[in-house]
Amino acid sequence: MGSGHMLLTVLALVLLGFVLLTMNRSMVNTSEQNIGASVGLNAVSLAESFFESAQRLRFDEKDLTDPAVSNAGDLTPADLLGPDAGESQSNVAGLDDIDDFNGFNRDTTLKTVSDLTGMLFHIQARVCYVQPEQPWKDLTARTFNKRMDVTITSSLLPAGESLKFQHVFSHWRQFVDFTN
User: Fold this and answer.
1) What is the pLDDT of residue 117?
2) In sequence order, which residues have a C-beta less than 8 Å from that of residue 84 and are 6 or more positions away?
3) Residues 23-46: tens digit of each pLDDT
4) Radius of gyration (C-alpha) of the chain in whole angstroms
5) Across the chain, which distance is largest between two alpha carbons, in Å?
6) Torsion angles phi and psi, residue 148, rounded to 5
7) Pair 170, 58: CB distance under 8 Å
8) N or C: where does the chain have the smaller number of CB atoms within 10 Å of the terminal CB?
């Protein structure tokens, strides 16, 4: 083998190494993106199931005894939003109204088919009164609208990143006049 052939062989090996390195880097990036997408989808599922759990509950403790409550001043004061006496957030099935989720703070693990060890998520929830015109603004005054903020963090998310979800629940009073 002459020096020309030797040089072509070395160049071919360098080119092959470069191609393999590029393909490996591409596969690693794709794998990281797949993990990120999976974590994001699971976080969205967690938040959505949280909102659905709250949606099946009454709007307020007062609403349990008087479903036609028509005075917002009769609702739970903003500083008392949270589980009522005898209720515990460790037993979500025992909660009876939306604001019982205020202060919720728990770790949960979701097991997936591809990851049998599971993904660890930390969930925090906060409930406050809002106006429909300004749902981003917390109120201390009682209204017929409550916003639930759910924040989800995970070690699988980029450092310091958390996913925040919000949902506004409203209590609609329907008055029917049968005299007309």
Assistant:
1) 63
2) 61, 96, 97, 100
3) 766 665 565 656 666 777 888 888
4) 27
5) 108
6) -105, 125
7) no
8) C
